[in-house]
Amino acid sequence: MFSLNLKSRTVKSKISTGMKKYLSIGLVLVGFLIAVNVKAISPTTIFSDNFGANGLGTDYDEINWNSWSNGGNSGDDAEIRVSGGGNDSASPDGERFVVVLGEDGYICRVINASGYNNLKLSYYWRGDSDAENDDDGIVEYSTGGSCSSGSWPDLKVYDISNDSSWTNQSEFDLPTSLNNSTFRIKFRVNSSQNDEHFRVDGILITGYPVVTDTTPPVLTLPADINTEATSPAGATVTFTASANDETDPATPTVSCAPSSGSTFPLGTTAVNCSATDTAGNTANGSFNVTVQDTTAPSISLNGSNPMDVQVHNAYPEPGAVVTDIYDTGLSATISGTVDIDTVGSYMVYYDAIDSSGNSATQQTRTINVIDQESPSTSDNVPSGWQKTDVTVTLSCTDNVACARVYYTTDDSDPATSTSSFVDASNSWQFTVTTEGQYTIKYFGVDTSDNIEAIKTATNQLQIDKTFPVITIIGNNPNRSYINMYNDEGATASDNIDGDLTSNIVTVNTITNNRKVGNYTVTYTVTDSAGNTTVVVRNVTIYGPGRGGSGSTGEVLGAETGPEDNGASTTTEETIDNSGDTATTTDTVIYIQEPAPAGEVLGAEIFKFLIDLRFRDNNNDVMELQKRLTTEGLFTASTTGYFGPVTRASVIAYQEKYASEILTPLGLTKGTGFVGPYTRAKLNQ
Hints:
With 684 residues, the chain is mainly beta. It folds into seven domains: 1-40, no CATH class; 45-209, Jelly Rolls (Sandwich); 218-292, Sandwich (Immunoglobulin-like), CATH 2.60.40; 298-370, Sandwich (Immunoglobulin-like), CATH 2.60.40.10; 376-463, Immunoglobulin-like (Sandwich), CATH 2.60.40.10; 466-597, Sandwich (Immunoglobulin-like), CATH 2.60.40.10; 605-684, Orthogonal Bundle (Muramoyl-pentapeptide Carboxypeptidase, domain 1), CATH 1.10.101. The protein is built from five helices and 45 strands. The strands form 13 sheets. Strands 1, 3, 4, 6, 9 and 11 form a six-stranded antiparallel β-sheet that branches. β40 and β41 (517-526) form a beta hairpin. The N and C termini lie far apart (178 Å). 29% of the residues are buried. Residues 1-40, 54-59 and 545-604 have low confidence and may be disordered.
């Protein structure tokens, strides 16, 4: 049988008008040949036998017809039987069938399949009720030797104890090694007893005529494939490639490299496919698989976001993880500045780009530089009693900056809502001016509102600015005759310390009360705060009677006995270079002046023995006014009162004799205070 197979191809060419006629004739011929080919590919019966030939009506013990051979047993090997009862019921193919007898009988014959391919075998078979499950019916083939020799591979093996009915063995492929060849086929029984048989009927072998085929199969390949990478290795790509052949009853197998399901790397890879038909014709084709990376990397931040960092502490950058469907080992580019020394919020930025140029979505982290440390405050409250106003400094330190220090002075707990405070505007100081005892409590608050625990000053603030009071017992000034003066002393008291009489220190200049003259007795006392009071008693000792001893003379206008002319109290003054008078704050001297002494008989000049100052009112002031009048410096009435006019005159006198009064003191201007240098000049 002959057939021609044409496979169509798409051909693009220019066809001349003169060729159209011949083309039409060719197409008709092609159509005819295709029709012939369709018939040629139907299967052909190469061999068949239903064992019902020759019109036999009885069983035959031996098979010696239609080129079958038998053997295997020492006795009967096989026989044809007519259908009967039990195991010998008619087969689906007719009344007659062959029985291959046990123990080792067989039937065998030569099959000539030259010129045929794709061979198939089918038949009906049945076992035997006497057979056991280890008794077999075997179908074998051989390509050489004889029915009783050579190699006989199995085609099928059956358990012939299964004898309930005939079994249709549908067609199955014979080995391709038997195509277009001559071979033997054998049906054999392998049993333990000679009454255990293998029945066969309707044996059929078909095949397809061998056709000369020079046309390769037709490949059906996918179009070029574009896909996204799914891993660093690329992407796994599956595809379907097929082939068909018009002359091959079986579909040719397509082989592609790389195969479907392979992992394709990034980029374009050519897939080469081929299919070969049974005639050895091969078709080749290819398509491209392109793996691309258009997916951006992904950035995942490590650590917390936002992140808090204590001011002045190092910022521990936790970093980020970058993942990509293709690239490995990518790292993020980190930018942004965090000032760890300044409280505030800062942004840190994370970026990444893969090898394909895909940029990740930028991630940001908020860094909050915070201050959670409270300030620390100390004080300079002095210990012991203070005799002046006290300025308390509450020194506040903080890792960022202090805002305020709140305080109380009455031992109550300070609060931000009700208490006084100090800050940088007042140098963190407050001043206590009122006398008393104070327990100071305080706490600091920084610019981040961190609050310090309340502290209590170690020292209690104690202020006493009041000087003790000394009261002289007896007269002051005191006038006594020789051998008559006896110091009566003084008492002292203080607003804080109470009675300080026992603390009075007395300095008495009267070393001999038998000597006429002017003397002083000084009483000094100091309280716990250091306030010192000094009081002076002025004592004048007279001789007996007018004229006395003659050395001091008689006091003009004086009574024969001592007389108290009253007392005046003044505050001791110091003099600075500016000529101003300032009152000292630590020592107060109360001076009670003696009564007017008058002019001593026979004396040339009045002796100024005590210092004189503004607002004094005594006889010595009157004598001073007289003296200044003689100098032409005092023009008012002499009253004995040291007023502004007297002071101006004293200043003029001091500046007139500046070299003797002021220069030794390092002064350039008069002070209006009549002290030792001024008295020395007046007494000349």
